[in-house]
Amino acid sequence: MDRKTLITVSILIILPIVSILYKLKVADLSLLPMEVDDTVNLQVVILPKENVAVSEVNFPVPKQFIQSKVLKSNMKIEDLDFRMQKRQYGHLGIWEGEDWNSPIGYYAKIKILPYTHSHPEHDIPQTTGKQSAKEPYYLSLKNFSPEEIQLAKKLFEQIHPYDKDNVAAAKQIFYFISEEVLNTTKEISLSDTIRLHNGSAYTQAILFSLLCRIRGIQARTVAGFDLSKQNTKDNKTKLSFWNEIRIHGKWYFVSTYKNIFASAVNGYLPLWKSVEERRSLGEEPATFRYTTYITKSNVNRYNFKEYSDEIATSNRFLRYYSLYSLPTPLQNLFRLVILIPIGALVLSVARNMIGIPTFGIFTPILLAMFFYETNLLFGICFFLLIIGLGFFERYALDKYYLLAVPRLSILLTITVITLILFSVLNEEISFFNQMSVTLFPIVITTIFVERFSIMIIEEGVLHTFVTLAGTLLIALISYMIFFFGSLQILFFTHPELLFIVIAIQILLGQYKGYRVSELFRFKEIFKS
């Protein structure tokens, strides 16, 4: 390596490092945007039922719990008055007003955290000592009817968890309900659940709380949303119910309906942690109906808005030159475009160091963008189909001795017709999920097939298909790079890293040694 090249490469490597250190140490910026995990958008829409006059509606609204952090919320009240009842076990939204005929509700962005407590240790039952002030509330039976208490006590005698500590007794109650009480989605009362051994998630949770309280174990019924029960088509969900039991001062998750006892679980969004009566939540009354939509907001994995605000509030000149200052559509474009040089670097290594043949220089990268913007399975199938059609089209049109431009125009027309047929058939059978039609298939495949046909004639079928395989291999590697989110965000946040890519390309450009493929090709010469 000569002195000029060494100086150039050194400068290209040092400049990005100095720039990043300046951002971290002087401008006091974060290295990357903050990661966003398990954050959901919750929307509840409440509508009055037809021919029903109503002046007040109750429904639980999100509260800061250990398992849920409300990042942002907004209430929709229209012409109604809104107030909130705040309790330690939940917040209840109350809408009041006359002539209510339009949808109300709320929107919230919530970070969901897991229930971390699991596998409680067994304890020795305490016969003396004062209970804390909070204990009597979660041991109270006043919200249950005399009939429900009487039936529950008879059931408790059958379970007979007297001679066990609290943990073992709670497990015995749990196993009885989860194994002996059949699940149902129908509306059923707690009394019928005890009699028939058939219950919904709500009545099973209420029964577990009642039996635990009879045994002297603090228990409460929780209302919220189970993300695993979400409808994947329209993102709708309904209120779910589960339990929490208090042992050694910690609350443990229990769900008899899903057969989970004191395990660390994720995907549960609690709204109300003391359901004594379902009507108190306003859930499914005779006056209104509600619809809940939950969508995950961690598609990008990173909080770009917060990082943009961080750059905007910086007093440094970087806020004027950051890609985060661009409009959102341009940001989305550059997050893909900025990885194209990485694909070109992979191509350079493959061609100059390994010796993998490809069609042209940038064709594999363009194919990778085609796969990225449509669908990998669709892209490969469509691409191979067009190659086959183009080959036979070239063979058929050779008999007419057409000029190059009309022949290429016919190939372009065949490509468009094939794309139309693919799209229509996919609408009927939905074979290719999330397929999106862009201009890349038309442009890339038309040009590629022409070169493919010419190479078959000039260099033979074997060499052409080897080159085709090499092109697809590099295209697939570049495609995987485009989906490497962390690398994409790193280069988007610090685009000066592209100077390092240039430095590596300079080093590759000066390589004059043997390629890997040539070592195998000339192995007999090397042996002699």
From TrEMBL:
Q: Which Gene3D superfamilies does its entry note?
A: 3.10.620.30
Q: Which domain of life is it from?
A: Bacteria
* UniProt KW keywords: Membrane, Transmembrane, Transmembrane helix
User: TM spans, by residue?
Assistant: 6-24, 333-350, 370-392, 404-425, 431-449, 461-483, 489-508
Domain Transglutaminase-like residue range list: 162-254
InterPro entries named among the record's database cross-references: 7TM_transglut, Papain-like_cys_pep_sf, Transglutaminase-like
Instruction: State the name under which the record lists this protein.
Output: Transglutaminase
Q: Which organism is it from?
A: Leptospira mtsangambouensis
